[in-house]
Write a structure and sequence with these properties.
This protein is mostly helical and about 100 residues long. It has helices spanning about 15-45, 50-60, 65-75. Helix 1 (about 15-45) packs parallel to helix 3 (about 65-75). It is elongated. The model is unreliable at about 95 (pLDDT under 50).
């Protein structure tokens, strides 16, 4: 019979995998929350979101970029305003900058 330690911080393969999966799940949850917030703000403000733009927003997994887009969604006059003001934002094309 083998002894299994359930004390946290032991660094077992199972514990490490669990903690990595949990952290990944938390990031995914934050991404989903920010995407939802962006779309909700745009909807409540009456700003239409074309299918290609919806795909761009929902496929983004960078929390910093999504946070920037959340901030911009509050003042955007059009959905393009989310992307165009900062050339360092991934996916922003030069003509939108």
């Amino acid at each position: 019979m083998s002894f299994v330690s359930y004390f946290p911080g032991r660094g077992t393969v199972r514990e490490t995998a669990y903690l990595e999966g949990r952290a990944e799940g938390q990031v995914e949850g934050q991404v989903e929350e920010r995407v939802s917030m962006i779309l909700s703000v745009l909807e409540k403000r009456g700003i239409p979101v074309p299918e290609d733009t919806l795909e761009r927003i929902t496929s983004c997994a960078d929390l910093d970029t999504l946070a920037l887009w959340v901030d911009r969604s509050w003042t955007a006059a059009a959905v393009e305003d989310l992307f165009g003001e900062d050339p360092t934002v991934p996916g922003a094309s030069p003509e939108q900058a």
